[in-house]
C-alpha cells in the first residue's frame, strides 16, 4: 500500500480485494504478502475499528499492539484481533489493565476524552502503558471527510508522559487533502516538549498542557495560511496597475478585446 495513500480513501482501496485478486490471479498469495503494509498503514494513521457489540471506535497503534495481530483497549479492558486488510475487529477477550499507573491511566482516559470532545467534532483517543510500564502513551486521531466538497482531513496527536519525572513530549500531525480539479495536500507536524511540573503530573494538568500546546499550534497554522494567501499565492497572480477607477462590468462585453479592456485596467496601448 502506498505510504501516502489519500486520507479517507483507504477503506475503498482495501475493500476491493476481489478486484486485486482478479488483477493478480497468477499471484494467489498477493494479499497475504501485503499484510505488513496494511498493518504499518493502520498503525501509523491511527486507523479506528469498532469492536463487536460496541459503537465506540478504538484506535489501532503500535502502543496498544500485543503482537500476532492482536491489540488491546484500556477503556473497555478488552483485547481483540484485527484483519488489517479489511480493517475489521473480532475475537474480543478480557484484558484487565495491569499497570503501576493504572489509576493515572484511567484519569487520563477521562480527562483526555473530555478535552478531545470539546476541541474536535469527531475523535478517538487511547491511553496506554509503554516502555515496560515506566511511561504512558496518549494517542488521538480526528478525521473529517467531506467528499461532496472534495476534501478530507486528519489530525493526529501522540504524547509520552513519564510520571517519575513529570516530563511530557509529543508530536502533532495535520494532514489535509483537497482534490477538486487537481490535488493539493498539506502535511505538517510539530514536535512538542511540555512542562507539567507545576501541576504535579496530575491527569488534569497533563491534558491542560496538551490543550494549550495544540491550540497554539492551531493558531500558528491559521497565521501560516493567512501569510500563504496574502503572500505566496498572491505573488503568483499577474500584477496589474491600480487606477482606482470603477470597472463598468456591464459594458465589459462590448469592449474591443485586447484594447479597451487594457485601457480600463490602466495599461497604455500604442
Your description of this structure?
This protein has 270 residues and is an alpha+beta fold. The chain has three domains: 85 residues, Ribosomal protein S3 C-terminal domain, CATH 3.30.1140.60; 135 residues, Aspartate Aminotransferase, domain 1; 31 residues, no CATH class. 31% of the residues lie in helices and 30% in strands. The protein has a five-stranded antiparallel sheet. A hairpin with a 4-residue loop joins β7 and β8. It is flat and about 75 Å long. The C terminus is likely disordered.
Summarize the model shown.
The protein is of the alpha+beta class and 270 residues long.
Number of strands: 11
| Overall helicity | 25-40%
- The assembly state of the depicted protein chains is single chain
Terminal CA distance: 60 Å
Query: What's the CATH H-level homologous superfamily of the largest domain?
Result: F-actin capping protein, beta subunit
| CATH class wording of the largest domain | Alpha Beta
Shape: flat
- Tally of alpha and pi helices: 7
> Could you please say which CATH topology of the largest domain applies here?
Aspartate Aminotransferase, domain 1
**Beta-strand content estimate:** 25-35%
Classification by helices and strands: alpha+beta
Largest sheet: 5 strands, antiparallel
How many domains, in number, for the residues?
3
Q: What CATH architecture label of the largest domain applies?
A: Alpha-Beta Complex
On the 0-100 scale, what is the average pLDDT? 83
Task: Record keyword descriptors for this entry.
270 residues; 5-stranded antiparallel sheet; disordered C terminus; Ribosomal protein S3 C-terminal domain; flat; alpha+beta; single chain; 4-stranded antiparallel sheet; Aspartate Aminotransferase, domain 1
